[in-house]
Design brief:
Layout: E1 5-6, E2 9-10, H1 11-19, H2 22-34, H3 38-55, H4 57-60, E3 90-95, E4 105-109, E5 115-120, E6 130-137, E7 160-168, E8 177-190, E9 204-211, E10 217-222, E11 233-239, H5 241-248, E12 264-273, E13 291-305, E14 308-309, H6 321-357, H7 359-374, H8 377-388, H9 392-403, H10 405-418, H11 422-429, H12 434-470, H13 481-490, H14 500-527, H15 529-532
Parallel strand pairs: 3-14
Antiparallel strand pairs: 1-2, 3-13, 4-7, 5-6, 6-13, 7-12, 8-11, 8-13, 9-10, 9-12
Helix pairs in contact: 3-6, 3-14, 6-7, 6-9, 6-10, 6-12, 6-14, 7-10, 8-9, 9-12, 10-12, 11-12, 12-13, 12-14, 13-14
Length: 534
């Protein structure tokens, strides 16, 4: 069977037909000419890289890109600079909720049989795994009471239960700060249920310990605020410098020796009953109560702060500079392209009307264009931005208002040359309307020179957005390269040695502008016959 013919239609001829069409030959000739210009190829490559950054920003970014979202101390250096600092510590999350996807180690301390624990894991969901720590108490049962611990390390009772999560400490220095977050909810039954008996909410505590590599326990949290709820709540625990020193000092290599035997740090989360002392309203005989208390712990998170953070450090506000840099490509491209597109539409229409009709119409429109060209652009954009507001849509309108004048003059000059040609006279002779002639005959002939003007117009829009952001006239919570430079200037970045928050956003603005400039210059050479003949 001859598959090249179906239903009498010769597919090879059909394929050959579209390849012989004018648009195919025109596109092929254009690509052949464009490839001769290396600078245009380089511009396209850089441009595609930035488009990739903008499209895949949610996957490339590592943190919240909000410039005001503090996630680490101010002006931390990029993490790759830590290779030059033997004592350097990279700020990072060393325990997270997803670590509960690996079953933790559960232990019961003491001899009581009232404590139990269950581990629940849900695969595929980082926030679904949790541990239930339960105390099931029967009236008359006594636990081993030790009394208050003078060192503040253990609970009042030696009978308790806990689970632990461990991590390796990869640095030879101590963190400058540390925060821990424990997420848990509480369920109470029997005499321990809410309101069942007076004072029964003082019967149990949740404890958190940090244990160093020599198995030295250091209590950093106990839930003595007595605010218990079945809803999962997060408790943030700031770790003091003394506790940090106790935990990490033995793991620091000094004179070639390390006091502790390894670099493993454990975080233990446990529950134990709490004897109600006189300062809390008198002793309550909880031994006569019957019921249960269950702590549902959904995660333990620990962030250690050092002198370094992420791929590009932090900004003046302590935000992630890398995530802002990635998401800033979206703002620059969206504003640059949409503002240029809007200004091009306005400029093309004004230029067509002025050039085609001439006379008083041309005079009025061109005098208005001259008026806008005489007014300083940046001060006018500042006034308009303040008047309209700081949203992205308004910034696009502000840039477009002043960006169409050059396009209008360019199109007008081309229309003046085209409107008296024979094909326009022929169209008039057969009764074509002015609108039809302008948009179906003249516009296609002036479009080639318009492409180069559009790409160069994007450069101006990108620089205008960066300038308005630097002056603080855009949304302060929207990441942009101009905003990064403004924050760097406000925070005296160079004075404080934070060169990365100035260099990289400035480099991004330069590279993106150069890519459009390279492409626009190449388009001008390829599409302009007079330049191509040189």
């Amino acid at each position: 069977m001859n598959y090249s013919k179906i239903g009498g239609l010769d597919l090879s001829q059909t394929q050959k037909g579209w390849r012989d069409s004018n648009w195919y030959h025109g596109l092929s000739n254009f690509m052949r000419e464009y490839r001769k210009h290396r600078i245009g190829i380089i511009g396209l490559i850089i441009m595609f890289i930035f488009f990739g950054m903008a499209i895949f920003a949610p996957y490339l970014g590592t943190s919240d890109p909000n410039p005001l979202k503090t996630i680490a101390p101010t002006y931390l250096a990029p993490s790759w600079m830590s290779v030059f600092d033997p004592q350097g510590v990279v700020t990072d999350s060393y325990l997270s909720r997803s670590d509960l996807n690996t079953e933790p180690r559960i232990r019961v301390n003491g001899t009581s049989g009232e404590f139990s624990a269950t581990y629940h894991q849900t695969t595929g969901d980082d926030d679904a795994s949790y541990v239930n720590l339960t105390w099931q108490h029967e009236a008359g049962t006594q636990l081993e009471y030790n009394g208050p611990d003078p060192a503040g390390i253990y609970p009042d009772y030696s009978d308790f239960i806990y689970f632990e999560q461990a991590f390796e400490w990869p640095w030879n220095g101590m963190p400058s700060g540390m925060n821990m977050t424990v997420s848990f909810g509480t369920t109470r039954t029997g005499d321990f249920a809410p309101g069942a008996k007076p004072g029964n909410n003082l019967m149990f505590l949740l404890y958190v310990w940090i244990v160093d590599s020599s198995d030295e326990w250091n209590m950093v949290y106990e839930s003595r605020d007595f605010t218990y709820s079945e809803l999962i709540q997060e408790r943030r625990i700031p770790i003091s410098f003394i506790d940090i020193k106790k935990t990490f000092e033995g793991m620091i290599l000094v004179n070639g020796t390390q006091p502790d035997r390894n670099d493993t740090v454990k975080v233990r989360v446990g529950m134990a009953p709490f004897r109600n002392f006189e300062s809390y309203g008198g002793i309550i005989p909880w031994e006569n109560y019957t019921g249960s208390v269950t702590f549902t712990v959904t995660g333990v998170q620990l962030i250690a702060y050092g002198g370094y953070f992420g791929a590009l450090g932090t900004t003046f506000w302590g935000a992630d500079a890398y995530s802002q840099l990635i998401y800033g490509s979206r703002v620059s491209l969206v504003i640059g392209i949409l503002a240029t597109g809007l200004s091009t539409i306005v400029g093309v229409i004004v230029g067509l009307v002025a050039g085609y009709f001439g006379g008083k119409v041309d005079e009025v429109l061109m005098r208005f264009v001259d008026f806008l060209l005489v007014i300083p652009g940046l001060p006018l954009m500042m006034v308009l931005a303040i008047f309209l507001g700081e949203s992205t849509q308004n910034i696009i309108i502000v840039i477009a208002i002043l960006g169409w004048t050059g396009t209008a003059r360019l199109i007008r000059s081309q229309v003046l040359a085209e409107k008296n040609k024979a094909y326009v006279e022929s169209a008039r002779a057969i009764g074509a309307t002015d609108t039809y002639i302008m948009f179906r005959h003249i516009l296609p002939n002036v479009t080639p020179i318009l492409f180069a003007n559009i790409t160069l117009g994007v450069v101006g829009a990108i620089l205008a957005e960066a300038g308005l952001s630097f002056l603080g006239l855009t949304n302060i919570e929207e990441p942009s390269w101009g905003r990064m430079l403004a924050d760097a200037q406000q925070g005296l970045a160079f004075t404080r040695g934070a060169w990365w928050v100035v260099l990289f956003p400035g480099l991004m603005i330069t590279l993106l502008s150069l890519s459009f400039t390279f492409v626009g210059h190449t388009l001008d050479q390829v599409l302009n016959p007079r330049l191509r003949e040189r």
